[in-house]
Design a protein that fits this description.
Layout lengths: L75 E3 L7 E4 L15 E4 L9 E3 L5 E4 L13 E9 L7 E11 L7 E2 L4 E6 L7 E4 L2 E2 L9 E7 L8 E3 L5 E4 L10 E10 L6 E11 L7 E4 L5 E4 L10 E6 L9 E5 L12 E6 L2 E6 L10 E9 L5 E11 L7 E2 L4 E5 L7 E4 L2 E2 L5 H4 L2 E4 L6 E3 L5 E4 L10 E13 L8 E13 L7 E2 L3 E8 L7 E4 L2 E2 L8 E6 L6 E3 L5 E4 L10 E9 L4 E11 L7 E2 L5 E5 L9 E2 L2 E2 L13 E4 L2 H4 L2 E3 L4 E4 L12 E9 L9 E11 L7 E2 L5 E4 L6 E5 L1 E2 L11 E3 L5 H6 E5 L5 E5 L10 E9 L7 E11 L9 E10 L6 E5 L13 E5 L8 E3 L5 E4 L6 E13 L2 E17 L1 H5 L2 E6 L3 H5 L7 H13 L6 E7 L21 E8 L7 H10 L1 H8 L2 E5 L16 E14 ...
Parallel strand pairs: 1-7, 9-16, 18-24, 26-33, 35-42, 44-51, 53-60, 61-67, 61-73
Antiparallel strand pairs: 2-5, 3-6, 4-5, 6-7, 8-11, 10-14, 12-15, 13-14, 15-16, 17-19, 19-22, 20-23, 21-22, 23-24, 25-28, 27-31, 29-32, 30-31, 32-33, 34-37, 36-40, 38-41, 39-40, 41-42, 43-46, 45-49, 47-50, 48-49, 50-51, 52-55, 54-58, 56-59, 57-58, 59-60, 62-65, 63-66, 64-65, 66-67, 68-70, 68-71, ...
Length: 1530
């Protein structure tokens, strides 16, 4: 290694500068590069460059950047230049290669948080402004120092710094400023010319000529010219000629002040000089100092006057004077009150007002004004110059560290320090340097601040030094009294940089990496090697130099991490021994790395050669193996060792037919079929897995191709388009060629032989089959046909093939007789019934004009026109098709339409007939559809359901039967939807249904109402209870009650599924000849979600929507005003909406009871017929108390499971919370949110079904049917309700997946009480001691006897049946109506009043049949009765009709009621009577125009009005469909 000789470095002087234009076209200073000298380079070079040749670098040296022209940088920036102005381009050199130390970046050295005023380009060193400078006051930015750092990219990083003084040059950017806003003076009339009148003063804060002010004066009026003149340099105004003006005259003048800049700035001001009498003299100064006054900037005597001025008033009798120190408009003119004035008689003393600072202001101009009584004044200007003193201590720049390489010779430059003295003159601000310590190691140039070494350093001994540097100025300190100059000091850290003089050493010569899986991911880490190098600056680079077969591994150069480079294979190479190298650029070391590969199961089994093609006979069960396969595992090197291979058939449909054992023997389970749905050739996929098929096993598949030898086991069948049409009246002839197909092979197929041997004699007499010479068989007619006799024929064709032995089959040929218009039409009439959903039906085709005509394909021969009254405004007619269109907005009513139909045919003359269509339009409200019940029929079309047979249709039969079941008027039942669900398509052929065709499914929706509409749970449950009877009267199978598209698991959704009723205003039309039915298109759609979204807030029970919630009446505490609790007495039940089919469900409720046993709730089928039979759906869930503990039974349709909890007993009268959570994986029961393991009961459901799918109502408090018998019929493993079928106690807060049930208002109920007081009271009574209970009962019996006696004595006067909610409160004894004035008792309802026993029947909801005795009648035995709690639901109405019927019967039987043979007519308000009838008050509307159904939606507070004015049936209908428990009006 070569070194230059030691030399002393004063300054580095080299910069390749370039000219840069400034905004004022000045150029940046440019510098010529001087020759590089050896003592200017910071690190050794390989050879001398004194001869100008390019230096050859030694790669191992790390050179330091050097600013070669730092001392020559003297940039100047004009003030007020915009941001981004170029200042200077600095340049440093570094002789290292660019990529390893020679790349220099530039930055500023700044204190933390310092706001930089310059920016520097880090790449090229160009300095620009980031701040607009102002050299003048108040900023006074005259000089700015910046320190630039040059950093290389070597390791370690080395730096050099350069501190640059940037001078801010003045521009003439300020105008002169007068020291006063205006000037006003007086002049005596006899003043001698040449004398001073006044003086003006202006200052300019610019520098140099830009701050020198010259003055001018000119009159504002011509007559004032030449009276005064001004000294252009001093601003003193003197009298130029004698004043010839009268006193009080004002001379108006304009004075100007202009600086001497290249582009001078000028300002002006107005002056007024007033002429006064001659005897009025201005005061004069008598003692004024000559020349400027000099003050040291550290002058601090604030009490002694700096100068004293004397003056005289020149008015003998008034010697008093007023002195004023005029405050100027700049700091130089005492703007900041640096000086103050004190007066003493005719003397004025100027004193110091604030501290001086030469570096801020070094020259002051003070104007002192004196004024006498006549307001005449004189002024004097005093100049005060400030002298600089040494009052600033040198301060270092921010550079605080440097570095030098170890083992460098003495004299090697280390760093340059810079300090600055803020004093304003060179006599005080010249800075020199000296070391404060370590003088034996370093030396410093006192002028430049360059620090160099005095010794050769070793980093391994000491790696840094803290060196103190002292900076001192060049004159005695004004701050100290010792006569020494000011000095500052700072400690700098000097790092001893490392050189690469130590080799790297691996931490181990042998590394071992064991058990590296052969399937390791590419780039995964195998191991890491480490080499240490005592040279901190040396970068150790790693590489693999040997043993890396196939480049299997790669090593990270900088970290030594060895990674997988290519996929490993244990079967090829089991271990690697790598040689790795650590190299620091000069020295190296090597080590061995032993990498051992671990075998993993990464190879798939390999099949040995075998016979892939197998031929066997179809429909034959072959014994033994039909093929033998064998595979081995390549991961097991010993082929004789057990290979642990398992085999299986891949395709699920083939697994039922073939099997393969672990020896590779493929055999048949069942015979294979060659014919459809089988195949002539079967491809059987066989998979082999190693490791006995474990989780990490690998698999391989192959195939066995089985060819089946055909046997004649299939009969031929017709394979042709059907139906075939043959027109009526056609002469006998060929109808069609017969085409057949046989699924067997050609050897067992054609030719085919056709015959009618299986047909009836009638068919054989009308048709024949003949064979042509080419072998084609033709089907022909023997006779002419009349479509009016038979519209189509189903003809059995017998077909025999040519197989051995031959097979014979029969196919049906559908022959339709085509229509000819050979019959004259006759007049006809038809009817159309339209349900108009919400009155929003658009223009709708509702049917065709019907005429009686045996022909049915003759529509093109007919034309249709209006007749009678002509066109109806609500309907349109298509003249070509006879289609009647009901127009949008057609109101309710019955419309009689008349038409004329004209027919033309080749069989008869043109003729016309009349046709009549009766259209009934009924608007059906949305609530009727929302609350509708539904059934799904199987095996019937919508036309068959609507068309009348024998004068009545199945739709009408269903309506009548529902009215009977629900015990309402027929008019209160609407069957409004009849359609085939789009989710279940119709069979392809309307003539012939194959057994393989899907069944025809027909969806029916219906509603019923008293005043409001009944809830769907009530309608559906009562229909289910009468399912067999409905099927009998309809003659149709009912597949399900309450249509549910989610009932069959995974038929519509893979997981969660809910039913959404989609309603459309566009009607669904069913056409038949005599009738057409236009219904509501309401379809149940499955949505694959857990809960349907609620588009709006719906508040129940009279609540009012408020934001996203509801404001509820008192007592309704649910989020949407639900009633949260219900009580049961042990002999009741309540029906609520069913549960949704959710993948993850959570049901919770609270119980309070004292009973050990009881069925709390049940949801599932309520009949063994319907969906349970037709679809095999028997899912259910129940919660019951068994010995005081909760038990849940749940069946997903594939087996019942039981979940019990035996930790917390519930029969203590206290509230207990029950949580039931179920999914496809588990069923969980929790009590009181207990988290102990003993409190949690968990089980798994029986598969394969995964979800609970139910569509029956949720029955709480008991059930409406014999649940034990139903469970046995459906084959449940566990039976609910065995111990007790009902529940006594309270149920609260029933929620399902966050949806709160409105418990207080069930859809249908018996002995269920809203609120829990009555139910709990009854339950508690059972816990009383029996002796005490007997005593209480005796007391109650005595009390009842006493009460009965009183009642009997007063029964003629007291109305015992009156109640706060008496359903008969609108029945009044009308004295003016119903019987006339003379018959006051003819309509007296008092005769219907009975003693107390009649009360219980009404209050308990019991109905006594006609002729039955009250005491003998048990309402539990009456299947038609229905009960409801005292807290009647808002939708239900009192049964007044039933009440009257019962009471009439009871009165007839009562021996105390007189007279016995009196026949009375009881009705509403004179119905049917003319005497005194209120009909005289009738308006122009009839009762049908008044619809008060909307009252039912107003909530509980309007319940009574809804009961009184809601829709009701007539007496005649009640008589016809009179059933017990009617809830309609009479």
């Amino acid at each position: 290694m070569h070194h230059f000789k030691q030399g002393r470095m004063r300054h580095s002087r080299h910069l390749g500068g370039r000219p840069v234009a400034l905004p004022n076209s000045r150029s940046l200073p440019s510098y010529d590069a001087e020759d590089l000298r050896p003592d200017r380079i910071y690190n050794s070079l390989a050879s001398s460059i004194s001869d100008g040749t390019s230096p050859k670098l030694t790669v191992q040296d790390n050179h330091k950047p050097v600013f070669t022209n730092c001392s020559r940088y003297t940039p100047v920036v004009l003030e007020e230049q915009p941001v981004g102005t170029e200042v200077l381009q600095v340049h440093a050199i570094d002789n290292d290669p660019f990529e390893s130390g020679g790349n220099i970046t530039y930055s500023f050295v700044s204190a933390q948080g310092e706001r930089l005023k310059f920016g520097i380009n880090p790449r090229n060193g160009l300095i620009t402004t980031k701040h607009i400078f102002d050299r003048d006051e108040p900023s006074r930015e005259k000089v700015v120092y910046v320190t630039v750092r040059a950093s290389d990219n070597g390791r370690p990083q080395l730096d050099d710094v350069c501190t640059i003084k940037v001078t801010i040059q003045d521009t003439n950017d300020n105008s002169p400023v007068f020291d006063k806003v205006n000037y006003l003076e007086s002049v005596p009339q006899d003043l001698i010319p040449g004398r001073e009148v006044m003086r003006i003063s202006a200052t300019d804060i610019d520098d140099g000529h830009n701050g020198v002010v010259v003055y001018g004066l000119e009159p504002k009026a011509f007559e004032d010219k030449d009276y005064f003149k001004i000294d252009h340099n001093t601003g003193v105004i003197t009298l130029n000629q004698t004043i010839d003006k009268e006193p009080s005259y004002k001379f108006r003048m304009r004075a100007t002040a202009m600086d001497k800049g290249d582009e001078p700035n000028e300002v002006s001001i107005d002056l007024e000089i007033i002429v006064v009498e001659s005897h009025k003299k201005a005061p004069t100064f008598t003692n004024v100092p000559y020349g400027p006054i000099f003050l040291k900037e550290n002058h601090s005597d604030f009490s002694t006057p700096i100068v004293t001025l004397d003056a005289e008033s020149n008015i003998n009798e008034y010697p008093e004077l007023i002195f004023e120190l005029v405050t100027g408009r700049t700091e130089q003119t005492n703007k900041l009150n640096t000086f103050i004035l004190e007066t003493e008689a005719q003397k004025a003393h100027i004193k110091l007002g604030r501290r001086l600072d030469y570096e801020s202001i070094n020259d002051y101009t003070l104007t002192i004004r004196v004024q006498n009584k006549y307001s005449l004044a004189a002024e004097e200007v005093i100049r005060i110059k400030i002298e600089d003193v040494n009052d600033n201590i040198p301060a270092f720049t921010e550079v605080i560290s440097g570095s030098v390489f170890e083992h460098e010779p003495a004299g090697t430059p280390v760093m340059q320090v810079r300090a600055f003295d803020a004093d304003g003159t060179s006599a005080n601000n010249q800075v020199k340097y000296q070391l404060g310590d370590h003088e034996n190691l370093f030396e410093i140039d006192s002028i430049t601040g360059n620090i160099t070494t005095k010794v050769e350093f070793d980093r391994e001994k000491t790696d840094f030094y803290n060196v103190k540097v002292i900076a001192f100025d060049n004159s005695p300190s004004a701050l100290l009294t010792n006569g020494k100059p000011n000095q500052g000091q700072q400690t700098f850290k000097i790092d001893i940089a490392d050189k690469n003089d130590n080799p790297p050493r691996f931490t181990s010569k042998n590394y071992i990496a064991e058990a590296i899986p052969e399937d390791s991911n590419v780039n995964s880490v195998v191991t890491e090697v480490k080499a240490n190098d005592n040279d901190t600056a040396s970068i150790v680079m790693y590489s693999i130099i040997d043993g890396n077969t196939y480049d299997a591994f790669a090593i990270e150069k900088g970290t030594g991490k060895i990674r997988v480079n290519k996929p490993l294979d244990y079967e090829n190479t089991t271990s690697y021994i790598l040689t790795v190298r650590a190299f620091d650029g000069l020295f190296e070391d090597t080590a061995k790395v032993d990498i051992r590969i671990e075998n993993v199961n990464d190879n798939r089994p390999v099949f040995l050669e075998y016979e892939k093609n197998v031929t066997i006979k179809e429909e034959t069960l072959v014994d033994g193996c039909i093929a033998n396969l064998q595979a081995y595992d390549p991961d097991i090197q010993d082929r004789k060792a057990p290979q642990r291979i398992v085999y299986f058939v891949v395709k699920e449909d083939q697994q039922k037919l073939l099997t393969i054992n672990n020896e590779g023997c493929l055999s048949l389970i069942k015979p294979l079929d060659r014919d459809p749905p089988g195949y002539p050739i079967w491809q059987v996929l066989i998979s082999a897995k190693d490791e006995d098929g474990g989780q990490t096993s690998q698999g391989e598949s192959t195939e066995v191709v089985i060819t089946l030898i055909d046997i004649n086991d299939n009969a031929p069948y017709l394979n042709m388009d059907q139906p075939v049409v043959w027109n009526e009246n056609a002469e006998p002839g060929t109808i069609t060629a017969l085409i057949a197909r046989d699924n067997d092979s050609e050897e067992n197929g054609p030719p085919f032989y056709f015959s009618l041997e299986g047909a009836s004699e009638d068919i054989r007499n009308k048709f024949l089959i003949s064979e042509a010479a080419n072998g084609t068989n033709f089907f022909s007619s023997r006779v002419r046909f009349d479509r009016e006799e038979t519209k189509y024929y189903l003809i059995p064709i017998t077909i025999k093939d040519s197989g051995h032995p031959p097979m014979t089959g029969t196919s049906t040929l559908t022959l339709v007789i085509g229509d000819e218009n050979d019959n004259q039409m006759k007049s006809g009439s038809s009817s159309v019934f339209v349900y108009n959903y919400k009155g929003e039906a658009p223009d709708t085709d509702i049917g065709r004009v019907y005429v009686e005509d045996a022909d049915d394909w003759d529509l093109p021969d007919k034309t249709f026109v209006w007749s009678g009254r002509g066109k109806h405004p609500n309907f349109n007619l298509d003249p070509n098709t006879g289609t009647i269109t009901m127009l949008a907005g057609t109101p309710n009513g019955t419309y009689y339409l008349e038409f004329q139909v004209t027919e033309d045919s080749s069989y008869f003359h043109t003729h016309s007939v009349n046709a009549f269509v009766n259209v009934t339009v009924k608007e059906i409200p949305e609530i009727a559809v929302d609350r509708s019940g539904s059934i799904r029929l199987s095996g019937i079309t919508e036309e068959e359901f609507v068309a009348p047979v024998g004068g009545i249709s199945k739709k009408d039969i269903l309506r009548n039967k529902l009215a009977s079941i629900l015990n309402v008027s027929r008019d209160n039942v609407d069957v409004f939807t009849v359609l085939h669900s789009p989710h279940h398509p119709l069979p392809p052929s309307p003539y012939f249904h194959s057994p393989s065709d899907p069944p025809i499914l027909l969806d029916i929706r219906f509603s019923a109402h008293g005043s409001p509409y009944y809830q769907p749970e009530k309608i559906n449950s009562m229909a289910s209870n009468n399912l067999a009877e409905l099927e009998k009267v309809l003659g149709v199978e009912i597949q399900m009650v309450s249509i549910d598209e989610c009932i069959v698991e995974k038929a519509s959704c893979e997981a969660s599924c809910v039913n959404v009723l989609s309603k459309s205003s566009k009607p669904w039309v069913v056409y038949t000849n005599l009738t057409s039915f236009v219904g509501v298109r309401a379809i149940v759609d499955p949505k694959c979600t857990c809960l349907p979204s609620q588009p709006e807030v719906i508040c129940l029970n009279g609540g009012t929507p408020v934001g996203l919630g509801c404001e509820c009446p008192e007592g309704f505490e649910g989020p949407f005003c639900e009633s949260l609790d219900v009580g049961f007495t042990g002999d009741g039940w309540a029906l609520y909406p069913t549960l949704e089919a959710c993948a993850d469900s959570h049901l919770s409720l609270e119980l309070s009871t004292l009973q050990d046993s009881g069925l709390v709730f049940y949801v599932g089928p309520i009949s063994a017929t319907g969906a349970a039979t037709s679809l095999g759906v028997k899912d259910f869930m129940s919660l019951e108390l068994f010995d005081g503990y909760p038990r849940v039974l749940m069946d997903y349709g594939s087996g019942t499971v039981k979940v019990e909890q035996k930790q917390i007993k519930l029969a203590d009268g206290k509230p207990h919370r029950i949580d039931i959570l179920w999914s496809n994986m588990s069923i969980e029961l929790k009590v009181d949110s207990c988290q102990m393991s003993s409190c949690l009961s968990l089980t798994t459901p029986h598969g394969p079904n995964e979800f609970l799918n139910v569509n029956g109502p949720l029955q709480v408090g008991g059930v409406t049917f014999d649940i034990v018998t139903l469970g046995k019929t459906l084959g449940w493993n566990y039976l609910p309700g065995v111990s007790k079928r009902s529940y006594s106690g309270c149920v609260r807060n029933l929620t399902m997946n966050g949806r709160v049930y409105d418990l207080g208002f069930p859809s249908l109920s018996k002995n269920a009480i809203p609120g829990c007081s009555r139910g709990i009271a009854k339950a508690v009574s059972f816990g009383i001691n029996s002796n005490f209970l007997v005593a209480i009962l005796v007391c109650i019996a005595i009390l009842l006897i006493l009460v009965l006696a009183v009642v009997v004595n007063r029964k003629k006067r007291d109305d015992l049946l009156k109640d706060t909610d008496d359903i008969r409160e609108t029945i009044i004894n009308y004295e003016d109506e119903g019987g006339g004035e003379g018959d006051m008792t003819g309509y007296d309802l008092n005769v219907l009043r009975l003693p107390n026993q009649g009360l219980n029947g009404l209050m308990n909801g019991k109905r006594v049949p006609l002729g039955a005795d009250d005491d003998d009648y048990d309402d539990d035995d009456d299947p038609r009765k229905e009960s409801r709690p005292l807290g009647r639901a808002p939708e239900e109405v009192p049964d007044i009709c039933g009440f009257l019927v019962d009471k009439k019967a009871a009165v007839d039987k009562d021996p105390e009621t007189n007279p016995f043979d009196d026949v009375r007519h009881y009705a509403y308000e004179g119905d049917g009577n003319s005497t005194g009838s209120l009909s005289s008050l009738a308006s122009g509307t009839d009762e049908g125009d008044l619809n008060f159904d909307y009252l039912s939606s107003f909530g509980p507070r309007f319940r009574k009005l809804a009961d009184m004015y809601g829709e009701h049936s007539s007496d005649e209908e009640e008589d016809q469909y009179n059933q017990m428990g009617s809830e309609s009006w009479c």
